[in-house]
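Anyone? Bumping this.
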Amino acid sequence: MKVVTWNVNSINVRLDRLTKLLKREDPDVVCLQELKCTEDKFPFEALREKGFESLVWGQKTYNGVAILSKTKPSKVWKGFNDASFDNEARMIGAQIDGLTVICVYVPNGQEVGSDKYRYKLKWFEKLRLFLHEEVDLNLPVLLCGDFNVAPTDQDVYDPKVWRDQILFSEPEKDALRKITDLGLQDLYRAIHPEGEAFTWWDYRNISFPKNHGLRIDFILGSPLSVTLVEDAYVDRNERKGSQPSDHAPVVCLFKEGFHQKKARHPQAQ
DNA sequence: ATGGTTGCTTAGCAA
């Protein structure tokens, strides 16, 4: 059982790279962010030919999220069912053979102190409440996506430069920590407690050749999923070559039996 | 140095 999350920065520009990734990694589930297209322009058929059914919440020009699966996923959420947040396509959730998969594209925030920054912090709090109230974290749950926050000093190339900057400010880190405090563990760090593994490099300033990156894309897992993690890595090579996304995919490999896992302590309602 | 690059859309915004 393999899960991939990737901010593609336009699904149609990245379709060729995506189909090669599907062949190379042979994942079971793929979470995509920043589709930058509406559902009528989403390449359902091209992905079906590669063996994947797609669940899509699109938006014109901006945002857009999708979950691809070899087995047909059932839609459980498109957004928070809250009109004050659901004008932007940033969250989609699916049930896939007893596994709950939630795919998020957290707002970037643009600049510390801006309106977009305040919206980002509110969005994080909405996500936390949603997870707390609507998701049974005693079951196998994966929360995957672009969180637009680097949690620790080793997740940025120069913590002194990034101190209090967007993607690394303390309120953003606190907001992410409140998500992980629900019991959702960073599965990359479960396998690799130390060391750099950036997932995003700005297109500007030749950031990638200088490895001026941040680790802001994660697969977070509920306790049952942590017990089954076998491996986790960043597909850094995907950032190389012609027309890359500015993000690299994050991959998580699980032992067999994931779908059979049942909660030991069903959540009291 | 208020820069730089990419994508969507077509001059300006978002990242």
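Late reply, but here is one note on the structure posted above: Chain A has one domain: 2-258.
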